[in-house]
Amino acid sequence: MPDVMSQSLKLSIVVPAPGDTQALEETLVSVLENRPDHCEVIVALGCEYADPWNIGDEVQFVRAEGSGLVACVNAGISASTGPVVHLLAAGWKATPGWTDAALARLRDSSVGAVAAVAVQASPPEQMTAVGIRLSSGGRRIVLGTDSRAWAEREGARRLPFSPVTAPTLEAGFWRAEVVRPLGFSAPCGDLYADADKAVELAAAGLVTVLEKQSVVVAPEQVHKRPGAFREGLQRERLFWRSLAGRSLVASLPLHAWEIVRHAVLAAPLGTLPMLLGRLVATLQFGSYLSRYRQLKALLQVATARAAEPAQEEPSSIRIDAAHGALAAPHRQAAEAPLRRSA
User: Fold this and answer.
1) Which of 27, 184, 207, 240 is the most buried (most CB within 10 A)?
2) What is the H or E stretch that residue 186 is in?
3) Taking residues 324-336, what's their average pLDDT?
4) Is domain 10-218 annotated with CATH 3.90.1170.20?
């Protein structure tokens, strides 16, 4: 992809708003007050919003075909035109200069996404998430302030031991060529769509980096978790959709252990529905063949790109997969009235 900083439009800020207009206005206040130069702001609506502040000349509103987070994200990405897409879900807040360092990191052609540092709204400014990691057994792990994942660095914010494999769906920077062709896929739901995209990044030979100078404020409740059956279904789909390019023999024992672990955590009432959901997802094995072919194609492109001379431009990435949406709205009380930016 060309140098993102060499183009007049550097960034598309997409604000997916599944269903909470109060949270949407809170996010728009922060974005418009801290808006960087050469960017567009797109709000993808999964609910009715009358624009009472009349900011249509500063913000582009688009309708999502569905009310879920993934549906809103995909609608916003489809309407975007910038070389970099920044997702900032309704309820999350921008901070001064939060995009500058992230855009600079994307000058590196090997970087496919940049994870922002999410902090809690109330003092002290404690970190709550810096992206996600996908385990070999198929578990999505949110990297945050867990003592097993963090270490103190003198004079700097705490950085995770575990590598970040993708930003969270609610707050991250992505190369448009990675997410714009077909957006995020729906089979893994709102909660696991970012982990599903992490698999594509890895297959394409791209990495995710954490930028500690890119800070956003997270709402108190990020996700409403799905029921036990649906969570089992989506987790199992995530595992089978991630297998291309990995050893099935090595992955299956780790996956079996992950199922046992999940069963214990879901006990007593959620264990059987969760296991039933996983069984249903396993029986849908035929539906994963197109995903397998897609990831194999990405691996081949990445291998060919690695063999090219260093001065040549990297090959474009083509992603062919269907996507849709599942609902996961969240709320947070507004702290300031929305006003037009300068």
Assistant:
1) 27
2) none
3) 42
4) no
The pLDDT confidence band at residue 222, using thresholds 50, 70 and 90, is low
Q: How far apart are CA 209 and CA 174, in angstroms?
A: 11
Give which of 82, 78, 10, 11 is closest to 44, Cα–Cα. Answer: 78
Euclidean distance between CA atoms 139 and 135, whole angstroms: 5
Average pLDDT over residues 6-25: 87
Per-residue pLDDT, averaged over 241-252, amounts to 84
What are the tokens at 110?
Answer: 């090997």
At 235 the three-state DSSP class reads helix
SS3 category, 83? coil
> Residue 128 is encoded by which pair of tokens?
């709550």
The answer to whether the CB of 110 falls within 8 A of the CB of 119 is no
* Residue 64, phi then psi, degrees to nearest 5: -95, 140
Q: How far apart are CA 224 and CA 34, in angstroms?
A: 28
Tokens 């910038």 appear where?
Answer: 82
CB atoms closer than 10 angstroms to residue 224: 12
Cβ atoms of 305 and 1 closer than 8 Å: no
Instruction: Please tell me the distance from the alpha carbon of residue 75 to that of residue 134, in angstroms, as a whole number.
Output: 25
Please state, rounded to an integer, the average pLDDT across all residues of the chain. Answer: 83
DSSP strand pairing (11-17 vs 159-160): unpaired
- Rounded to whole angstroms, the Cα distance separating 40 from 19 reads 22
Q: Cα torsion at 78, 83, 89, 92 (round to 10°)?
A: -160
Q: Say which residue the tokens 């578990």 belong to.
A: 139
CA geometry: angle 131, 132, 136, nearest 5 deg: 160
Question: pTM, whole model, 2 decimals?
Answer: 0.82
Q: Given pLDDT bands bounded at 50, 70 and 90, which one contains residue 60?
A: very high
